[in-house]
Amino acid sequence: MKRPPIFPKIHARFENERAIQNRVRADFELRIFELRRLMIMNLQYARLQLAIVSPPQAPRTKPAADGAPKVANDNYPVWPLIPFPSGWYASN
């Protein structure tokens, strides 16, 4: 059982202020939510607009050199075949 307030007018005023504060807080939270939603929408729109306006970049390539490039393992001239000494084997 709830006790009646000692000072009913002050209690009523306090309850009224609490209700107002709750409404203000709820309104503030709704505004923050709306602001975040609008910011995200603006960012998405700006990203889409940038993707539409910007042409794709050309791939960066080196200019073609004249002739074929020299390979790193160019074994020219052919090495002579040197036989193993007697008793040596080509294994681990």
Cα separation of the termini: 95 Å
**SSE class:** mainly alpha
How much β-strand is present in the residues?
under 5%
Number of separate helices = 1
Indicate the overall shape. Answer: elongated
Rg estimate, integer Å: 42 Å
Low-confidence stretches: none
Name the average pLDDT: 76
Q: What are the secondary-structure elements, in order, as H or E?
A: H
The profile of the biggest β sheet is: none
What's the helical proportion of residues? 40-55%
Let me know the number of strands.
Answer: 0
Architecture overview:
The protein is 50% helix and 0% strand. With 92 residues, it is an all-alpha fold. It has a domain at 1-55. The longest helix has 46 residues, at 8-53. The protein is elongated, with a radius of gyration of 42 Å. It starts with 7 loop residues before the first helix and ends in a 39-residue tail after the last helix. The model has no long low-confidence stretch (mean pLDDT 76).
